[in-house]
User: Fold this.
Amino acid sequence: MGTQPGTILVTGGAGFIGSNFLLGTVGGGRARVVTLDKLTYAANKDNLAPLDGDERHTFVQGDVGDRGLVLSLLRAHRPQAIVHFAAESHVDRSIDGPGAFVHTNVVGTFELLEATRAWLAEAGEGTRESFRFVHVSTDEVVGSLGPTGLFREDTPYAASSPYSASKAASDLFVRAYHRTYGVPTITVNSTNAYGPHQFPEKLVPLMVLGCLEGRPLPVYGDGGNVRDWIFVQDLCDGLHAALLHGPPGESYLFGARNEQTNLDMVHAICDVFDDLHGAEPGTSRRLVTFVADRPGHDRRYAVDPGRAERELGWRAAVPFREGLRRTVSFYLDNPAWCAAVQARYARERLGLGK
Assistant:
């Protein structure tokens, strides 16, 4: 693409990564944005409150799987890009109810691609050449690593959970629509993101709120499962780089070379919390409680982000402790936000497969 797009259609923009992307895009003057979000349980329109009244942002409540609605938005706003965040994303929920993941992640992505294909056919080759469809996905599609090695863009898919299987299917549809129909797509697979506005079913906010209330901090299994963590601002910067510089049909892995065992991650959250909250060091670590592991729990994820760094001129820049401090501060500084989202989820254990 090479130049800043004038208008972007963002799906799932009221969720965690989507809202951070939107705030940086509109607030940073990078583009005008049309947001399409169904406002399911993990989405929160309050995440976009800083954009209220901003004429560069238009919010539409609706389903990404509504092909007619999407096509009408494309015709009305003629965006230069779509950035597709909309997805069910929690592994534990996918174990308890995989149907919603198939409907949103697979069928929803298919319907979005069909609307895009139809609109590009109407708009003509000039629009197609400058247009980009950026599909945001996960490193979980390639399954579990052993104790050594890294995921790369050519690592074969080996999804383990209903969530990762649904995202793998959506990735393959996106790539097929480029190969078969010429839709100019780019696929991005990211490691675990953390940062402000994340729904508290996920590890970091779940632990922060547990520390705040002095509740047990559940750690699955032996706590030795490894994840590669990236601060959400770094991921959003990577998505902008892919949007501007990624050629159609390409895929990129985004990571920060920041592997942490789950137990080490929980301990780091506890330590930052105690420091910010004025508690005696080690107080929150005493809340750690080991619980039964998740069925099919992948042991290790880690990616090689070298291609994105070389080809897009991007690199994760926020140090882990700084990103974690900014993240914990958000939850401590926004009790009303935390209370509102917890009205939809009482932090009960999910994903036991019963």
